[in-house]
Design goal:
Number of domains: 2
Distance between the termini: 47 Å
CATH superfamily of the largest domain: TolB, C-terminal domain
Largest sheet: 4 strands, antiparallel
Helix content: under 10%
Shape: globular
CATH class of the largest domain: Mainly Beta
Strand content: over 45%
CATH architecture of the largest domain: 6 Propeller
Length: 308
C-alpha cells in the first residue's frame, strides 16, 4: 500500500469517526426539537426586523425567555422588556449591589447570575437574589444553562494565570474543562459561553482571540480564530456567543462590527456585516430563528432574520 492510500484511509477514519459522534450526539435531542430540525438555508441578505432600545449603556448581556428580552449592563439590575408594549421592568437586584457580569435563565424562568467581585454565583427567587455557589481562588466571568440540567460557569483564577469551565448541579461540581490532551490551557480569558444542541461547549476567549469548542468529555473539537476572513479582518475580536437549533455557532466580532456564523465543525458558513452593526457585543437566538444582537455602547438590540 503506497503512502497516498494510507493517508486516504486515515482521513476517512478521522472524519468518519467525527460524523458518527455527531450523529450519536444528535440522538440526545428530544422528539419535539427533532421535528424542528428541518434544516434551513441562510438568507442571501439578512433582514433587520426591529431595533429595541434599552436603558443600559454599556449593554453587557441579553437573553430571550418566554418572548421577553432580558438584559443587563453596568448597574445592579437585571431587567426585561416585553414584546408588546416595549416596557422595561426590573426583574431582580443583585445581592451585593454590584453589576451582574453574566446571567442566564433556567427553563422554569429562574435567573442565575455571576458576580466576579463576590467570587460567587447567585440565583433569583421572587426578585430576591440568594447565594448559590461561593468560589475560593477563582472569579466567575460567564455562565449558561445546559440541556443536561447543570449550569456551566467560565472562570479565571484570582491571579488571572489559569482559566476553566466548571459544571454545577446546585453547588455540586459535575464536570470541569481546563486543559487539552497535551496539557495545554484550553482558555486564557473565557468571556462568553454557550452550549450547542449536540452538547458541545463553546467559549469565546478575549486573551487568545479565538473560539474554543470542546465536546461533553472535554475533548477539543476545534479552535476558530477568524482565519477564514483574515484578509478582510486581520484580527478577530470574539465576544458574545450563542447557538441555534441548526447547530450553528454565532459569534459577535465587536471591533470588526460583524457576526461570524460557524457550523458544528468550525467552518464559516455565513457572515453578517451589512446591517450597520455598531460594536456587536452580546447575542442570543429566539425560538423562531431570530438573532438578537446587543450593541455595546449604543445600548440597543437589533433583531435580525438570517435563516429562511
Amino acid at each position: 500500500m503506497n503512502i497516498l492510500e494510507i493517508l486516504k484511509q486515515a482521513w476517512c477514519w478521522v472524519f468518519g469517526k467525527d460524523k458518527i459522534q455527531d450523529q450519536l450526539a444528535t440522538k440526545h435531542i428530544n422528539g419535539e426539537e427533532s421535528k424542528q430540525l428541518s434544516f434551513k438555508t441562510f438568507l442571501k441578505q439578512p433582514i433587520l426586523e426591529e431595533v429595541i432600545f434599552t436603558d443600559c449603556k454599556p449593554l453587557w448581556r441579553i437573553r430571550i425567555w418566554n418572548n421577553q428580552l432580558f438584559y443587563s449592563g453596568d448597574d445592579k439590575c437585571i431587567k426585561s422588556i416585553g414584546q408588546t408594549p416595549h416596557a422595561c421592568q426590573v426583574e431582580t437586584v443583585t445581592f451585593s449591589g454590584n453589576s451582574p457580569d453574566d446571567f442566564s435563565i433556567t427553563n422554569s424562568g429562574e435567573i442565575i447570575y455571576v458576580d466576579w467581585q463576590e467570587r460567587a454565583v447567585f440565583y433569583s427567587q421572587n426578585g430576591q437574589a440568594h447565594p448559590m455557589i461561593k468560589l475560593s481562588g477563582w472569579k466567575p466571568w460567564a455562565l449558561c444553562c445546559s440541556d443536561a440540567g447543570d449550569i456551566l460557569v467560565a472562570m479565571r483564577s484570582n491571579d488571572a494565570k489559569r482559566a476553566r469551565v466548571v459544571g454545577y448541579q446546585g453547588s455540586k461540581k459535575t464536570r470541569e474543562y481546563s486543559l487539552d490532551r497535551n496539557g495545554r490551557p484550553l482558555y486564557g480569558s473565557p468571556t462568553f459561553i454557550a452550549e450547542n444542541k449536540n452538547g458541545d461547549v463553546c467559549v469565546s476567549d478575549a486573551d487568545y482571540n479565538r473560539v474554543t469548542v470542546v465536546d461533553q468529555k472535554g475533548n477539543i473539537k476545534f479552535h476558530y480564530r477568524g482565519q477564514q476572513v483574515v484578509r478582510k479582518y486581520p484580527t478577530f475580536y470574539p465576544k458574545g456567543i450563542t447557538t441555534d437549533s441548526q447547530f450553528n455557532i454565532l459569534v459577535a466580532d465587536q471591533q470588526n462590527n460583524c457576526i461570524h456564523v460557524l457550523d458544528r465543525i468550525g467552518q464559516l458558513v455565513s457572515f453578517i456585516t451589512e446591517l450597520s452593526l455598531n460594536e456587536p457585543y452580546c447575542l442570543c437566538v429566539g425560538k423562531s430563528y431570530e438573532l438578537y444582537v446587543g450593541e455595546y455602547h449604543e445600548g440597543q438590540v437589533k433583531k435580525i432574520r438570517y435563516l429562511e
